[in-house]
Amino acid sequence: MSTNTVPNGKPVKSTDLHIGAAEPGCKKRDPILVAEGVSRTFGGLKAVDVDHLEIPRGAITALIGPNGAGKTTLFNLLTGFDKPDTGSWTFEGKSLAGMPAYRVARMGQIRTFQLTKALSLLTVMDNMKLGAKGQIGENLFRALLPFLWRKQEEENEAKALDLLARFKLDEKKDDYAASLSGGQRKLLEMARALMSDPTLVMLDEPMAGVNPALTQSLLDHILNLKAEGMTVLFVEHDMQMVRHIADWVVVMAEGRVVAEGDPHEVMKNQAVIDAYLGQHHDEDLGADTEHVEAIKELLDDKL
Amino acid sequence: MIDWGAIFSNAAVELISPTTAAYALAALGLAVHFGYTGLLNFGQAGFMALGAYGYAISILTFGFPVWGAVLVGIGASVVFALILGIPTLRLRADYLAIVTIAAAEIVRLLFTTNSFASVTGSANGLSGYKLGFAALNPIPEGTYGFGPFENNAYDWWLRIVAWSVVVLVALFIWQVMRSPWGRVIKGIREDEDAVRALGKNVYAYKMQSLILGGVFGTMAGMIFALPRAVVPSNYQTSLTFFIYAILLLGGAATILGPIIGSMIFWVLLSFFSGFIARAVEAGWLPFMTNVQAGQLRFILVGVAIMLIVIFRPQGIFGNKKELAFVH
């Protein structure tokens, strides 16, 4: 595992990922995840209705779209946390439809959550060790015989320390995860996911609630995942970030994939502008207007 | 005048009584459920009843040896845990609470109903199942010990067995909770979706925890039955709540907590009971009858536990740091 490949300046973009025109549902040269006809309704609302979607291997794909576009629902469906009404999907050629979430994770498709799920009353180190796969001592009867799992436990601990050092959490290893800041919890969640050596990392809004000082370090970590050969799929609202690190962008609106393409091209797509219309119609999509407005409102309240 | 010596002596008896051991064991089972896994089991009394009745019925009706009767009780509680767990463990935590409290009542009412009186003894319960256990006693006849801890051979045998079981179970829990298995269990308590996302079969782990804690409850039921008769009214919902009180008193996710908590609970209960009875006799409480006084001890124990929970909310052995983050 390469320890420090923090990209300096501009990240290296993966190009030439698709076959044919960059349109919704277009074929990829080497897809890792292929979804076909996936739909999910909540009462009368069709939250997700994706005809065809391929995620390119070894690249960073961003899943964007306005609130309520169905991004998180699609995430939940693909990771087994929710069951679709129709549809099938394969991960590395193996069908995942109907598979429970824990088995999806064991196959190497690991996710994080929009609302960070650090295990508060476990230490940072225990959080990390929980992420390791195939632990001998996780069987109740073998748990009684420490000599069976002590060696593996030490290996996991060494691996966890290595990862924690990269995420600058090594000094916190004996603290409860509850004592970490919001950004540190995001880092911990990502580091924990890496303990299982996943092939596809799915990050649900990795930047939500992270203070700007930590943003750059989080971005570097995501770029690092790619450098180490992992595929990344992430949901994000922050367009700056999407443009900065994504190799491919999938845009969802009202449950459907409305556009796909290179991050710079896709922002000019009429369907994307329509999708965001009303909120950002006459503004640059890159400008962080939401935050500015929120701050203005706060100031108004104070005055 | 009040005989303080007798009051303290009677209270001290409870320190190592088999009933205290039984409550400690049941509370250890709840610690596995609630303290470590976060399962809200409100039916520990049902597990205890299955242990007591499983043991007594096996011996009285079927003539089983002691070890066979113990296995029957444990088997019954495993089946009970599966029945409770299969439909509810996939659902939110509160469903288990509702189902367990109802299931424990169903168990008690089944043992109370007249339809099975020939086997269960109905409301009168069962007795006369202690011969097999007494026959295993290696201690020669006679009385041993000193002061409040003076007992005959059978009572010592019962105490030694009861507390040995408590110690073994405590060691068992201590070992599994510091293993990777225990780490998954504690992770489930914190957030089961996160644990699921890390590739652990959360449902299977919750089921294992429910069975394990239930079996400890069942063993507690057997120990509880040995110094007395098996009577269905002993296994009401209030029994579960006393055990929860002990657990919270000692510290929910601790090993020593349930044990020491049970000792404190029973010593306090006995102390207040003796004190109030004698205070009424001595005319200190002229506004009270003896019947009213009998209830007052529970109020006083309640107040004592409230004080401990207010001034030491993490329990006696709990970690103060854990509470710093719970609002």
TrEMBL record, chain A:
Q: Which domain of life is it from?
A: Bacteria
Any Pfam family: BCA_ABC_TP_C
CDD domains named among the record's database cross-references: ABC_Mj1267_LivG_branched
Species:
Cryobacterium psychrotolerans
Xref: SMART domains = AAA
In alphabetical order, the GO MF annotations are: ATP binding; ATP hydrolysis activity
What is the protein named? Amino acid/amide ABC transporter ATP-binding protein 1, HAAT family
Keyword entries, A-Z: ATP-binding, Nucleotide-binding, Transport
- Keyword Chaperone listed? The answer is no
Provide the Gene Ontology terms for cellular component: plasma membrane
Q: Does the keyword Membrane apply?
A: no
TrEMBL record, chain B:
Q: Which UniProt keywords apply?
A: Cell membrane, Membrane, Transmembrane, Transmembrane helix
Classify the protein's membrane topology as the record does: Multi-pass membrane protein
Provide any one GO MF term from the record: branched-chain amino acid transmembrane transporter activity
Q: Name one GO cellular component term.
A: plasma membrane
TM helices/strands, residue ranges: 12-32, 39-60, 66-86, 93-111, 156-176, 210-231, 237-256, 292-311
Source superkingdom: Bacteria
The parts of the chain that form a coiled coil are none
Main subcellular localisation: membrane
Subcellular localization, as worded in the UniProt entry? Cell membrane
**PANTHER family found in the cross-reference section:** HIGH-AFFINITY BRANCHED-CHAIN AMINO ACID TRANSPORT PROTEIN BRAE, HIGH-AFFINITY BRANCHED-CHAIN AMINO ACID TRANSPORT SYSTEM PERMEASE
Spell out the protein name for this chain: Amino acid/amide ABC transporter membrane protein 2, HAAT family
